[in-house]
TrEMBL record:
Gene3D superfamilies: NAD(P)-binding Rossmann-like Domain. Belongs to the short-chain dehydrogenases/reductases (SDR) family. Keywords: Oxidoreductase. This is SDR family NAD(P)-dependent oxidoreductase. The lineage of its organism: Bacteria, Bacillati, Actinomycetota, Actinomycetes, Kitasatosporales. Pfam families: adh_short (PF00106). It comes from Streptomyces litmocidini.
Length: 346
């Protein structure tokens, strides 16, 4: 595959972690629709087998193998890489999409839960890179894609500290990998960091919640399919960082321009809008220690597709209204160089 000139298609070998749910599952479907040969991994064996079967049916030349594994276990992650090489002979694209979340004040979140989150979000991605990169270096090329978050950059939110820090660490690891690959002369291997804003996945349903507060609403969110399309494009034409979704570029830009204003707004909306009152939700550990199984799904039920359509219609309407207002104002302006009636009579 010439990843710089065309999208992944039949014959492309793709490994996706976290493939049973959310962005990983959407990415697996997107690659399968193009006829890729897939090795899919997650902890939920039954759901993963179903996802693999659907991927294999998505295109006449698509193939999919399910390998149940926990990315926090390096030996298990190496087994995933060996399966790809033994079955298909190479690894063209490796997508680290496995991730978990923890909500809560940093001084009240159990250290064990934070450790588990970091083992999945950071060490799991490191394990994926450690398993995939030697294969890609031997074959002379490949693309490693890590799903990070805008929350791993300048913009942070209360009660998301452990998660945001893990995503920031992942973005830093990617920067280091790029430098090291340049130094070693492995210019055919690309590392791409995907930076979504809010995404309509089961993330909050699966996250450990130590706030005692129910999730009331979310900001504008993108569909998992939109992020999956960005992943496929990154596999075809790798870039250092790819921003996806509403606010993914605007928020960092606004934060750089007026940091305290953005911090205040995010803090206020998180505390007053996005979360309900204290005592409205039980303390849970989500899927930190157990597979998602029956709760695994692509979307999180936030109707991101409909909300995106509404935003686009509203944006187009506003643009058309603005254009009409400008045209009306222009028609009522006197023509340049035309004399007024008073001048003509004098």
């Amino acid at each position: 595959m010439n990843r710089h000139t065309r999208e992944p298609g039949p014959g492309t070998v793709v490994v996706v972690t976290g493939a049973s749910s959310g962005i990983g599952r959407a990415a697996a479907a997107a690659f399968a629709a193009r006829g890729a040969r897939l090795v899919l991994t997650a902890r939920s064996a039954g759901v993963l087998a179903q996802v693999a079967a659907r991927c294999a049916e998505a295109h006449p030349r698509a193939e999919a193998v399910a390998v149940t594994a926990d990315v926090t276990d390096f030996a298990a992650t190496e087994r995933v890489a060996r399966t790809a090489v033994d079955r298909f002979g190479r690894i063209d694209v490796w997508v680290n999409a496995a991730g978990v979340g923890v909500l809560g004040r940093l001084d009240r979140v159990p250290p064990a839960d934070v450790r588990r989150l970091w083992e999945t979000n950071v060490l799991g991605a490191f394990h994926g890179a450690r398993a995939a990169l030697p294969v890609m270096r031997r074959q002379g090329g490949g693309t490693l894609i890590d799903v990070s978050s805008v929350l791993g950059g300048a913009v942070v939110a209360p009660y998301m500290g452990a998660y945001a820090a893990s995503k920031a660490a992942l973005a830093t690891l990617d920067e280091v990998l790029r430098q090291e690959l340049r130094l070693s002369g492995d210019t055919g291997v690309a590392v791409c960091t995907i930076l979504p804003a809010g995404v309509d996945t089961p993330f909050f349903r699966h996250a450990a919640n130590h706030t005692g507060r129910r999730l009331r609403s979310l900001p504008a969110v993108a569909t998992p399919q939109r992020v999956a399309r960005a992943v496929v494009r990154a596999a075809a034409r790798p870039r250092r960082r790819v921003h996806v979704g509403p606010g993914s570029r605007l928020l960092p830009w606004a934060h750089a321009l007026a940091p305290e204003t953005v911090r205040s707004l995010v803090r206020w909306r998180t505390g007053r809008v996005y979360l309900d009152a204290p005592g409205t939700a039980p303390i849970t550990r989500g899927v930190l220690y157990e597979p998602s199984d029956a709760t695994a799904s692509v979307a999180g039920g936030r109707h991101a597709g409909a909300r995106t359509a509404v935003r686009r219609v509203a944006g187009c309407t506003a643009a058309l209204a603005s254009a009409a207002a400008v045209r009306t104002a222009t028609r009522h302006l006197p023509s340049r160089g035309r004399s007024s009636p008073h001048h003509r009579r004098s």
